[in-house]
Amino acid sequence: MTKILLDTDIGGDIDDALCLAYLLREPRCELLGITTVCGEPEKRAAVADAICRAAGREVPIVAGTDATLQPVPVYPTPEGAGALANWPHSAYEKGDAPGFLYRLISEHPHETVLIGIGNMTNIAMLFRQYPDAPGLLKGLYTMNGYFGSEPLPDPTYNWNSWADPTASKEVFAAEIATHRVVPLEVTDQLTIEASEARRLLPSGDRLIDAVLDFGGAWLESSGKLTLHDPLAAVTVFYPDICTFECGRVSVETEDVENMGSTAFVPDPDGNVEVARRVDREGFYRTFVKALRS
After folding, report:
1. CB contact at 8 A, 274 and 140
2. What's the pLDDT at 202?
3. CB-count burial class (<10 Å; 0-12, 13-18, 19+) for 173
Protein backbone atom coordinates (compact mmCIF):
# COMPACT_ATOMS: atom_id res chain seq x y z
CA MET A 1 0.00 0.00 0.00
CA THR A 2 1.17 3.49 -0.83
CA LYS A 3 0.32 6.28 1.59
CA ILE A 4 -1.25 9.20 -0.29
CA LEU A 5 -2.14 12.79 0.53
CA LEU A 6 -4.27 14.72 -1.99
CA ASP A 7 -4.32 18.51 -2.36
CA THR A 8 -7.13 19.56 -4.69
CA ASP A 9 -9.36 22.38 -5.93
CA ILE A 10 -12.24 19.92 -6.32
CA GLY A 11 -15.71 21.30 -6.92
CA GLY A 12 -15.51 22.59 -10.50
CA ASP A 13 -13.86 20.68 -13.34
CA ILE A 14 -14.97 17.04 -13.08
CA ASP A 15 -11.45 15.61 -13.37
CA ASP A 16 -10.62 16.48 -9.74
CA ALA A 17 -13.60 14.40 -8.62
CA LEU A 18 -12.58 11.57 -10.94
CA CYS A 19 -9.05 11.69 -9.54
CA LEU A 20 -10.44 11.32 -6.02
CA ALA A 21 -12.72 8.49 -7.17
CA TYR A 22 -9.72 6.70 -8.67
CA LEU A 23 -7.75 7.00 -5.43
CA LEU A 24 -10.71 5.68 -3.46
CA ARG A 25 -10.89 2.64 -5.74
CA GLU A 26 -7.18 2.01 -6.37
CA PRO A 27 -6.45 -1.11 -4.26
CA ARG A 28 -2.87 -0.07 -3.49
CA CYS A 29 -3.81 3.40 -2.26
CA GLU A 30 -3.98 4.26 1.44
CA LEU A 31 -5.56 7.71 1.34
CA LEU A 32 -4.36 9.41 4.52
CA GLY A 33 -6.02 12.77 4.01
CA ILE A 34 -7.23 15.51 1.70
CA THR A 35 -6.67 19.27 1.68
CA THR A 36 -8.54 21.78 -0.48
CA VAL A 37 -7.30 24.98 -2.08
CA CYS A 38 -8.64 27.89 -4.18
CA GLY A 39 -11.85 29.91 -3.77
CA GLU A 40 -14.30 28.73 -1.10
CA PRO A 41 -12.14 25.83 0.12
CA GLU A 42 -14.77 25.04 2.76
CA LYS A 43 -17.29 24.06 0.07
CA ARG A 44 -14.58 22.18 -1.80
CA ALA A 45 -13.86 20.19 1.36
CA ALA A 46 -17.56 19.36 1.68
CA VAL A 47 -17.61 18.10 -1.92
CA ALA A 48 -14.59 15.90 -1.24
CA ASP A 49 -16.27 14.55 1.89
CA ALA A 50 -19.50 13.80 0.03
CA ILE A 51 -17.61 11.84 -2.63
CA CYS A 52 -15.69 9.89 0.01
CA ARG A 53 -18.93 9.06 1.80
CA ALA A 54 -20.49 7.93 -1.47
CA ALA A 55 -17.65 5.41 -1.66
CA GLY A 56 -18.37 4.31 1.92
CA ARG A 57 -15.19 5.93 3.21
CA GLU A 58 -14.31 8.45 5.92
CA VAL A 59 -11.15 10.38 5.08
CA PRO A 60 -9.69 13.25 7.13
CA ILE A 61 -10.18 16.50 5.22
CA VAL A 62 -8.96 20.04 5.90
CA ALA A 63 -10.18 23.12 4.07
CA GLY A 64 -7.04 25.00 3.14
CA THR A 65 -6.36 28.48 1.86
CA ASP A 66 -8.21 30.65 -0.64
CA ALA A 67 -5.50 33.34 -0.50
CA THR A 68 -2.55 33.07 -2.87
CA LEU A 69 1.11 33.90 -2.30
CA GLN A 70 0.95 36.12 -5.37
CA PRO A 71 -2.30 38.09 -5.88
CA VAL A 72 -4.37 37.12 -8.90
CA PRO A 73 -7.37 39.01 -10.35
CA VAL A 74 -9.98 36.25 -9.95
CA TYR A 75 -11.64 34.33 -7.14
CA PRO A 76 -12.87 31.02 -8.56
CA THR A 77 -15.82 29.39 -6.84
CA PRO A 78 -16.80 25.69 -6.91
CA GLU A 79 -19.78 25.76 -9.24
CA GLY A 80 -20.46 22.07 -8.66
CA ALA A 81 -21.04 22.61 -4.94
CA GLY A 82 -24.75 23.16 -5.56
CA ALA A 83 -25.12 19.38 -5.62
CA LEU A 84 -24.15 19.18 -1.93
CA ALA A 85 -27.85 19.28 -1.13
CA ASN A 86 -28.13 15.80 -2.69
CA TRP A 87 -25.39 14.07 -0.70
CA PRO A 88 -24.53 13.57 2.99
CA HIS A 89 -21.50 15.62 3.97
CA SER A 90 -19.87 17.48 6.81
CA ALA A 91 -19.52 21.26 7.04
CA TYR A 92 -16.03 22.74 7.15
CA GLU A 93 -14.25 25.90 8.22
CA LYS A 94 -10.83 26.99 7.02
CA GLY A 95 -8.09 25.03 8.74
CA ASP A 96 -4.32 24.69 8.84
CA ALA A 97 -3.65 22.70 5.67
CA PRO A 98 0.17 22.96 5.85
CA GLY A 99 0.17 21.81 9.48
CA PHE A 100 -2.17 18.92 8.68
CA LEU A 101 -0.03 17.79 5.75
CA TYR A 102 3.18 18.10 7.75
CA ARG A 103 1.84 16.09 10.66
CA LEU A 104 0.93 13.17 8.43
CA ILE A 105 4.15 13.39 6.41
CA SER A 106 6.29 13.46 9.56
CA GLU A 107 4.34 10.55 11.06
CA HIS A 108 5.27 8.49 7.98
CA PRO A 109 8.69 9.80 6.90
CA HIS A 110 9.82 8.72 3.41
CA GLU A 111 6.58 6.74 3.00
CA THR A 112 4.08 9.38 1.87
CA VAL A 113 3.32 10.63 -1.64
CA LEU A 114 1.69 14.05 -1.97
CA ILE A 115 -0.44 14.59 -5.09
CA GLY A 116 -1.19 18.20 -6.02
CA ILE A 117 -3.94 18.84 -8.57
CA GLY A 118 -4.90 22.45 -7.83
CA ASN A 119 -2.93 25.66 -7.58
CA MET A 120 0.22 25.06 -5.58
CA THR A 121 -0.49 27.43 -2.65
CA ASN A 122 -1.05 24.87 0.13
CA ILE A 123 2.04 22.92 -0.94
CA ALA A 124 4.25 26.01 -1.19
CA MET A 125 3.09 27.09 2.27
CA LEU A 126 3.90 23.61 3.57
CA PHE A 127 7.45 23.90 2.24
CA ARG A 128 7.83 27.46 3.58
CA GLN A 129 6.59 26.69 7.06
CA TYR A 130 8.23 23.28 7.35
CA PRO A 131 11.51 23.37 5.38
CA ASP A 132 12.24 19.72 6.16
CA ALA A 133 8.95 18.56 4.58
CA PRO A 134 10.31 18.03 1.03
CA GLY A 135 13.03 15.73 2.39
CA LEU A 136 10.47 13.72 4.36
CA LEU A 137 8.28 12.99 1.33
CA LYS A 138 8.56 9.78 -0.64
CA GLY A 139 7.29 11.67 -3.66
CA LEU A 140 5.48 14.71 -5.01
CA TYR A 141 3.29 14.28 -8.10
CA THR A 142 1.55 17.30 -9.59
CA MET A 143 -0.57 18.25 -12.55
CA ASN A 144 1.10 21.52 -13.47
CA GLY A 145 2.87 23.39 -16.24
CA TYR A 146 2.83 23.58 -20.02
CA PHE A 147 5.90 22.89 -22.15
CA GLY A 148 4.32 22.46 -25.59
CA SER A 149 5.64 23.97 -28.81
CA GLU A 150 2.48 25.95 -29.60
CA PRO A 151 1.56 29.02 -27.50
CA LEU A 152 -1.48 28.69 -25.26
CA PRO A 153 -4.59 30.73 -26.19
CA ASP A 154 -4.41 32.40 -22.79
CA PRO A 155 -2.11 32.08 -19.76
CA THR A 156 -5.05 30.85 -17.65
CA TYR A 157 -5.07 27.58 -19.59
CA ASN A 158 -2.02 26.70 -17.48
CA TRP A 159 -4.30 27.20 -14.49
CA ASN A 160 -2.44 25.45 -11.67
CA SER A 161 0.57 27.68 -12.32
CA TRP A 162 -1.25 30.86 -13.35
CA ALA A 163 -3.50 30.83 -10.27
CA ASP A 164 -0.46 31.36 -8.00
CA PRO A 165 2.78 31.78 -9.97
CA THR A 166 4.95 32.31 -6.90
CA ALA A 167 3.66 29.12 -5.30
CA SER A 168 4.22 27.23 -8.56
CA LYS A 169 7.78 28.54 -8.79
CA GLU A 170 8.60 27.49 -5.23
CA VAL A 171 7.10 24.01 -5.63
CA PHE A 172 8.91 23.41 -8.93
CA ALA A 173 12.17 24.34 -7.16
CA ALA A 174 11.72 21.82 -4.32
CA GLU A 175 14.17 18.96 -3.94
CA ILE A 176 12.23 15.74 -3.33
CA ALA A 177 13.23 12.08 -3.64
CA THR A 178 10.76 11.64 -6.52
CA HIS A 179 9.34 14.83 -8.02
CA ARG A 180 7.16 14.13 -11.05
CA VAL A 181 4.95 16.45 -13.06
CA VAL A 182 2.31 15.78 -15.72
CA PRO A 183 1.93 18.93 -17.86
CA LEU A 184 -0.95 20.18 -19.96
CA GLU A 185 0.37 19.15 -23.37
CA VAL A 186 0.57 15.53 -22.16
CA THR A 187 -2.75 15.38 -20.30
CA ASP A 188 -4.45 16.93 -23.34
CA GLN A 189 -3.71 13.68 -25.16
CA LEU A 190 -6.31 12.02 -22.93
CA THR A 191 -9.23 14.16 -24.18
CA ILE A 192 -12.42 12.32 -25.13
CA GLU A 193 -15.94 13.42 -26.04
CA ALA A 194 -18.47 13.78 -23.22
CA SER A 195 -20.64 11.01 -24.70
CA GLU A 196 -17.68 8.62 -24.69
CA ALA A 197 -16.85 9.61 -21.12
CA ARG A 198 -20.32 8.67 -19.93
CA ARG A 199 -20.01 5.26 -21.63
CA LEU A 200 -16.75 4.62 -19.79
CA LEU A 201 -18.13 5.45 -16.36
CA PRO A 202 -20.08 2.61 -14.73
CA SER A 203 -23.77 3.39 -14.28
CA GLY A 204 -25.62 2.55 -11.05
CA ASP A 205 -22.46 3.07 -9.00
CA ARG A 206 -23.03 5.41 -6.07
CA LEU A 207 -19.50 6.82 -6.19
CA ILE A 208 -19.70 7.57 -9.91
CA ASP A 209 -23.23 8.94 -9.49
CA ALA A 210 -21.81 11.43 -6.96
CA VAL A 211 -18.94 12.39 -9.26
CA LEU A 212 -21.38 13.02 -12.11
CA ASP A 213 -23.73 14.99 -9.88
CA PHE A 214 -20.93 17.34 -8.84
CA GLY A 215 -19.27 17.53 -12.24
CA GLY A 216 -21.89 16.54 -14.79
CA ALA A 217 -22.89 20.12 -15.61
CA TRP A 218 -19.27 20.97 -16.34
CA LEU A 219 -18.98 17.87 -18.52
CA GLU A 220 -22.05 18.80 -20.54
CA SER A 221 -21.08 22.46 -20.94
CA SER A 222 -17.56 21.61 -22.13
CA GLY A 223 -18.67 18.74 -24.35
CA LYS A 224 -15.46 16.86 -23.61
CA LEU A 225 -13.43 15.32 -20.82
CA THR A 226 -9.69 15.64 -20.31
CA LEU A 227 -8.39 13.56 -17.43
CA HIS A 228 -5.62 15.96 -16.39
CA ASP A 229 -5.66 15.18 -12.69
CA PRO A 230 -6.24 11.42 -12.75
CA LEU A 231 -3.06 11.00 -14.80
CA ALA A 232 -1.01 12.46 -11.94
CA ALA A 233 -2.54 9.88 -9.61
CA VAL A 234 -2.29 6.90 -11.95
CA THR A 235 1.43 7.50 -12.54
CA VAL A 236 2.08 7.02 -8.81
CA PHE A 237 1.00 3.39 -9.09
CA TYR A 238 1.80 2.77 -12.77
CA PRO A 239 4.90 4.85 -13.54
CA ASP A 240 5.34 3.25 -16.98
CA ILE A 241 2.12 4.92 -18.17
CA CYS A 242 4.26 8.00 -18.91
CA THR A 243 7.76 8.57 -20.20
CA PHE A 244 9.55 11.15 -18.05
CA GLU A 245 12.51 13.44 -18.70
CA CYS A 246 14.65 14.93 -15.95
CA GLY A 247 15.34 18.65 -15.83
CA ARG A 248 14.50 21.98 -14.22
CA VAL A 249 11.45 24.21 -14.51
CA SER A 250 11.25 28.00 -14.34
CA VAL A 251 8.03 30.00 -13.79
CA GLU A 252 7.24 33.55 -14.91
CA THR A 253 6.17 35.69 -11.94
CA GLU A 254 6.56 39.26 -13.25
CA ASP A 255 5.40 39.64 -16.87
CA VAL A 256 1.61 40.07 -16.65
CA GLU A 257 0.95 38.86 -20.21
CA ASN A 258 2.83 35.61 -19.55
CA MET A 259 2.10 35.20 -15.87
CA GLY A 260 2.57 31.66 -14.62
CA SER A 261 4.12 30.43 -17.87
CA THR A 262 6.54 27.56 -17.42
CA ALA A 263 9.74 26.58 -19.21
CA PHE A 264 11.60 23.27 -19.03
CA VAL A 265 15.32 22.76 -19.48
CA PRO A 266 16.49 19.12 -19.71
CA ASP A 267 19.19 18.32 -17.17
CA PRO A 268 20.18 14.82 -16.02
CA ASP A 269 20.92 16.31 -12.61
CA GLY A 270 17.66 18.27 -12.47
CA ASN A 271 15.20 18.10 -9.59
CA VAL A 272 12.02 17.49 -11.60
CA GLU A 273 10.86 14.68 -13.90
CA VAL A 274 8.41 15.98 -16.49
CA ALA A 275 6.12 13.64 -18.41
CA ARG A 276 6.80 13.86 -22.15
CA ARG A 277 4.55 11.08 -23.49
CA VAL A 278 1.62 9.04 -22.20
CA ASP A 279 0.35 5.58 -23.13
CA ARG A 280 -3.24 6.66 -23.81
CA GLU A 281 -4.69 3.16 -24.16
CA GLY A 282 -2.80 1.90 -21.13
CA PHE A 283 -4.01 4.83 -19.06
CA TYR A 284 -7.68 4.37 -19.93
CA ARG A 285 -7.48 0.62 -19.42
CA THR A 286 -5.95 1.10 -15.96
CA PHE A 287 -8.21 3.97 -14.93
CA VAL A 288 -11.49 2.38 -15.96
CA LYS A 289 -10.54 -0.97 -14.41
CA ALA A 290 -10.00 0.73 -11.06
CA LEU A 291 -13.27 2.66 -11.22
CA ARG A 292 -15.18 -0.53 -11.98
CA SER A 293 -13.56 -2.56 -9.22
Report:
1. no
2. 76
3. middle
